[in-house]
Amino acid sequence: MKMITAIIKPFRLDDVRNALSEVGVNGMTVTEVKGFGRQRGHTELYRGAEYVVDFLPKSKIEVAVSDDLVERAIEAISTAARTGKVGDGKIFVTDLEQALRIRTAEVGDNAL
């Protein structure tokens, strides 16, 4: 099992959710986060004063998938989240040692 964590632009969230559903991913956790990468934020003008926005709004998606779904899920996320502009995001994949469904006590792939 793997845990896929993706940081994407918030307006691409619905597209990513639909793409993951099409490849068979049943659930996900989404968190509204702020951060920056190479884009380093930007400056904005508000009531005549210029200020720097260091942290930009992003959506963090966490998906636990079985090993046979990993590549399809990564492809679905990267295709749906891509705009071709700076700040499209990142995808991280980590090993997931164990999963347990609390209600039924199922473990492993059955818990996903």
Entry summary:
This protein is an alpha+beta fold. Helices cover 20% and strands 37% of the residues.
Descriptors:
Alpha-Beta Plaits; 4-stranded antiparallel beta sheet; 112 residues; alpha+beta; two-stranded antiparallel sheet
Average pLDDT number: 91
Give the N-to-C terminal Cα separation.
9 Å
Tell me the number of helical segments per DSSP (H or I, 4 or more residues long): 2
Please, what is the oligomeric state? single chain
What is the C-level CATH assignment? Alpha Beta
Helix/strand structural class: alpha+beta
Biggest sheet details = 4 strands, antiparallel
Helix content: 10-25%
Number of strands: 6
The radius of gyration is 17 Å
Order of H and E elements:
EHEEEEHE
- The total number of structural domains is 1
Uncertain residue ranges: none
Describe what this molecule looks like in 3D.
By secondary structure, the protein is an alpha+beta fold. The chain contains two helices and six strands; from the N terminus they run βαββββαβ. The protein has helices at residues 13-22, 70-81, and strands at 2-8, 29-35, 42-46, 49-53, 56-65, 89-95. The strands form two sheets. A four-stranded antiparallel sheet has the order 2-5-1-6, covered by helices on one side. The chain has a two-stranded antiparallel sheet with strand order 3-4. Helix 1 (13-22) runs antiparallel to helix 2 (70-81). The mean pLDDT is 91.
